[in-house]
């Protein structure tokens, strides 16, 4: 494959990338299969990030390619406004049956995690209007959160720098993040910190529940540095939202579809929010698609109140909502997850993953290690994570620096020998980078 030269690289304004630095010193991926990416120079690199937290069944799955090909030939596209197609309904039913926790049995399709988040926020606002409580418009989010890049998600993002360029967004208050020094090197759910949820009561006391539409949190935070919720924290958030009549939204764009060793984090910890936003693993990253799971009561409030009329109940949707090609990719992906029991495999092998990543404790500069399911975060001194990532890349393993944390989220098909390679590589790369 011919790679572009510097002149040929100018037109593409690359996302979340230092464009000038990239174009001076580019890195190319040209192929992918299973656990590996092929670089422009032909080297095979072990992918510890499942692409960007999305290729949960591994790369290059033929079943998905075949389903996409067949769908393109059968029906490439159909207008989703006021027309339906069978695969949209089939996929919604499969998601309700196999992925969403009990009670979240209505599905709205989007094309990305950012769109799922903004969709959920719009549903929350209109829901309260329909209930005659139209003053409930504000949101509560959390520091270190990432909710994508659309207006709602950006307003509610608590990641450093993520909002600084864009001016005024939605009205929001922020809970503290749940990273506590006393929980350093916790394995799985940390023991301390459930009481941090009570900050929500303080925010409600200040702003008043009559003004708050919803609380949104990543129940298992990814981009902020793999932040695992303290035991009992999510339950307390649920209780406080219930007491004050506030909707609870879990943003599971990373967590859902097996990443935590179960279909969703909500299901894993037994806390059911009012909505769950998803994307990424829904199609194994092969075709853009997102889905918002809603409680039936929310759907009924929009759809099944008053007289049936020809007016759309929710003036929202995308040209590509439930795109037939994305539906075909998602159905093939769900089949792989089920047939290969990948969520169960992720759960089982997560023990070995935990032991492996925690064996890095004691290396120079390692300040904290966190893990849950097939996720891990390693905190390093300022400025080191990027150097570690560059070093592991040289050694044949890609890891992702998120601020000062190395984050990892390998495909769920990972085996023990891959974990050994990742751990051995980091064992050498972390000291070498400092
Ligand atoms: N929400 C969460 C929790 C995410 O991690 C992401 C992306 O990483 C998003 C939303 C945005 O998803 P997308 O990049 O598909 O718009």
UniProtKB/TrEMBL annotation:
Family: Belongs to the class-III pyridoxal-phosphate-dependent aminotransferase family.
Cofactor: pyridoxal 5'-phosphate
One MF annotation (Gene Ontology) recorded for this entry: pyridoxal phosphate binding
EC number(s) on file: 2.6.1.18
The protein's name in its UniProt record: Beta alanine--pyruvate transaminase
Xref: Pfam families: Aminotran_3
UniProt keyword Transferase, yes or no: yes
Keywords: Aminotransferase, Pyridoxal phosphate, Transferase
A GO BP entry: biotin biosynthetic process
The keyword Iron belongs to this UniProt entry's keyword annotation: no
